[in-house]
Amino acid sequence: MSNDPKTADTADVLVVGSGIAGCAAALAAAREGADVCLVTKAARPDDASTDRAQGGISTTRGDPRALKADILTASDGTADPDAVDVLVENADAAVEDVLLETLEIDFDSTDDGASGSDGASTFDYAREAAHSEERILHIDAATGTHILRPFLEYVDDHERIEVRDDTAALELLTHEGRVHGVVTDTDPAGHPIYAGTTILATGGIGSLYARSTNPEGATGDGIAMAALAGADVADLEYVQFHPTAYAGSGEPFLLSEALRGEGALLRNGDGDRFMPDYHPDAELAPRDVVARAVATEREATGEVVLDVDPIAFETEFPALAEACRDRGVDGDEIPVAPYEHFLCGGIDVDDHGRTSLERLYAAGECARTGVHGANRLASTSLLEGLVWGLRAGEHAAGLDVDAEILEPPTLRNSDPDLPPRFAAEKFARLQRTMDENLGLERDLQDVARAAGVLRRLKGEVDAYVRTRTARDLYELRNASVTALLIARAARENPESAGCHYVVDDAPLAR
Questions:
Q1: Out of 287, 391, 488, 491, which one is annotated catalytic?
Q2: CA distance 222 to 201
Q3: What does the DSSP 8-state code read for residue 206?
Q4: What's phi and psi for 128, nearest 5 deg?
Q5: What number of other Cβ atoms are within 10 A of residue 446's Cβ?
Q6: Beta strand 333-343 with 239-246: parallel, antiparallel or unpaired?
Q7: 230-269 pLDDT tens trace
Q8: d(CA 328, CA 205)
Q9: So what's the pLDDT on residue 509?
């Protein structure tokens, strides 16, 4: 394929990623009249983290001040108030516009047939940890699936949006601080796509840890590509762990915070309910508090279970109940443990998703908007992705492909394929390092040693990437870059806050 921009693949706006943030960005740019290309390495909807989002999407229910207060409290006082204002002031309009009017998502409603003042059915708003009131729209405990799949269909059918799935972005095309698009893996030597603007919406980092609620392939791609191109990153030490992932036999899955919002209780191996000893809000304390408490009790008593006897588990959460039954859980006590869940930091962006590099934007989990600070409030990830995706897509429209683009570097693919287990074995080493040193609790001396291990691993991987373009090798490169950035950020921050918990800083309160 020619590298001449006049004959090469071009788009007004290029979106990388197909979760809620990527779909929202593509939709908003197309609404502005831009021709959009959306590329995603996902080959099916459940390859995106959005598809696994269970609890729901927060609204303000007409009280943005209250939601802002809850976000700031959950963040341990570290969230950016201005960024939170952008979120809460645009939340309800974004949900109304995209989810209710455009996609016609059928969120759960009350069973009593009650209607609002406009005659519409009343939504069955849920409450989750650290929320002061019921304000979360949901569908059973599979909200992400019910949002993402119709969103993908809508985007795929849009006349101004071209979707290319099973297509990984390998490198950003840059020149003098300006981003011109990406090189993808659809050609052994790299296939360039030029764009007026590029929006990264590549999701999270779950594959950096052995146990995660993210899908495989959450390898920090956007963060690594942006950082390697010179973009600013921030708050990468704030890695959130969800306190209640299924920890029994069979494939793990997330047990939504909505269960505890309805009244499910956490009990240790002795059968004792323990969360009131850790926080006044007990099971509805912020996630970082609950996750550390669960880990502490598992170590002390052998296990922790989520007791669903106080709630109508089978009728209110049928999908989760079925998942438990499929794994042989017949009673009301479900074994749980903390799993890596969400990265609160990422590529540093402003209130329209602009990065420090010209013509590069980011939205969703790969972006650091400032909304989450050191700890994310439940059910704000879908909302942040929707709001910032819309704002980034709208703002990114209107710039043409730069006529002075230099030819992209041709990626070398000259050496023989690596052994089948090469990337997997390196990944296992990376995950062990992250699990042991950058989990729920951090000792800064251990973090410093981990940074050394990760630096050497990155050097090893870089040597192979120079002459090969295999996707799993680039994912390993991205994971090692992002892991090293997380370790450096953690090492440079000696103060405990939210989900960055420094063990030498203070003991876990009982």
A1: 287
A2: 7
A3: G
A4: -130, 180
A5: 18
A6: antiparallel
A7: 999 999 999 999 999 999 988 889 999 899 999 999 999 9
A8: 30
A9: 42
